[in-house]
Amino acid sequence: MRTIITFCALCVCAILLSAQAQGDTIVLKSGTRIVADCVKEYNGQVEYAIGDNTLTIPKSIVARIERGTPGVAPADGSASAPAPVSAEDLPQMHSDMEISDDLVARVIRDGQVDTDALRQIDIQSTPPQAASAYAIAAGFEENQNHLSMAAEYLESGLHFLPANPNLLENYASILLRLGRASEALPYAEQAARADSQSSLAFWILGYAYYKKDRDQEAIATLKKSLQLHSDDKVRQLLERIERESRTEADFRQQESDHFTLHYKGSQANGALRQAILEALEQSYNKLQSDLGASPRNIDVSLYTDQAFFDVTQAPAWSAALNDGKIRIPISGVTTVTPQLAGVLRHELTHSFVAQITHGRAPQWLNEGIAELEQGSSTSSFGPKLAAVYSSGHQVPLNMLEGNFESLDRSEALVAYAESLAAVEYISSTYGIGDVARILERLGDGQPIESALRSTIHGGYRELDAELTDYLRKNYGT
């Protein structure tokens, strides 16, 4: 998602957002309730801030944390746009297999998979027990967000029970979350055949069809899933595909090395289409160098402005969207202008970030990297932002971890500005390589605080202080 950042009344917007941000409530096991401005969990501790004070308590005494509204609430009370549905919304691994505590203790030892024990089980046990052992290992690795390793263990489990619905569903789901839809599809189809009463199997299959541009099969399959079990996420995905299918019924497509471009023939001439693909390929090479990833088979759809908002339900300030597919409104566009090239690179950056982090990047980091990669700079609004930070009226970055789609335009301007400033500071101080390493650590399952500390040696508090100094030094009066 992006917006063109032009700053007016920036200080007023930031103060307004800070006042509206809703805090969290810590409920202790004793029944005591602590209302805080923000709460974070890491290393067995719960850290919370009240005003300028930051306190820490053991997580063992906390019953639960009641979160306030994620992100920032719109000032005008407008309804939030629906969040994009992605492979990350698929349920995490589940198991209907009979797995004993003894088997778990053999496979998981000292906080990791015991590969020697797993190898012995593979050789000496019955097929059901060996498959169960690999399912245990896969579930453990998935909980650590080690999805590639989880996929390998599930593949091994399927060698022993190739028709097991549970293993098939889990393997297809993990492959989809890894962006490997072509590999996932046959396993998803097998899972649905193996258990015709599993709503989850049809959900996974429907999503796999959608990722392979087989919309009509996706629609029929998701309807079958809803017949078996009602689920809001399945319904949202179905509605999105139906809207997209109606709009793109007569679309054509054109391919390049890394992209498939979808378009309506009367809306995009051949020269424009080719120029868009060339711009995307150039951006791909730059992002591959900066971030070290190689997304495959990226879909790009071109729309009229009206069709774009009909399909995406995006906020009015949006200039484009990446919800797993890059969606660009091109009404009146005849050539790839520098502005359009920037939009393309911005949205493509989200595809790289999604692959590296498996969808775990906080929104400020995701958007900040995309803004930086498209060539934006804080220089045009630096003095105003420096004043905001110096006065302590900025929106804390940890309040910008959630989706920006619920923000109105003025709020979005602030959110994007702070996001860009934070990433620009990290990149200029530590290098773009450290930005990429933060993403890699998120992809390995580290929380954002840990990923920051292990890369730039400080968490949110330190980053906020350093960013304030950076802005004051470069733009302060």
Q: Any overview of this molecule?
A:
It contains 19 helices and 13 strands. It has a 5-stranded mixed β-sheet with strand order 9-10-11-13-12.
Annotate the secondary structure layout.
Layout: H1 10-20, E1 24-28, E2 33-36, E3 38-42, E4 45-50, E5 53-58, E6 62-66, H2 101-107, E7 108-109, E8 112-113, H3 115-124, H4 127-143, H5 147-160, H6 165-177, H7 181-194, H8 199-211, H9 215-228, H10 232-247, E9 252-255, E10 259-263, H11 270-291, E11 298-303, H12 305-312, E12 321-322, E13 326-329, H13 338-357, H14 363-373, H15 382-390, H16 409-430, H17 432-443, H18 448-456, H19 460-475
Parallel strand pairs: 10-11, 11-13
Antiparallel strand pairs: 1-2, 1-6, 3-4, 4-5, 7-8, 9-10, 12-13
Helix pairs in contact: 1-15, 1-16, 3-4, 4-5, 5-6, 6-7, 6-8, 7-8, 8-9, 9-10, 10-12, 11-13, 13-14, 13-17, 14-16, 15-19, 16-17, 17-18
Low-confidence segments, given as residue ranges, are: 1-22, 69-83
Query: Quick one: overall form?
Result: globular
Q: What is the CA–CA distance across the termini? A: 33 Å
Counted by DSSP, the helix tally is 19
Strand order of the largest sheet: 9-10-11-13-12
How many strands?
A: 13
Average pLDDT figure: 84
Which secondary-structure class do the elements indicate? Answer: alpha+beta
Fraction in beta strands: 5-15%
Considering DSSP H and I runs of 4 or more, what fraction of the residues is helical? 40-55%
Radius of gyration: 24 Å
Major pleated sheet: 5 strands, mixed
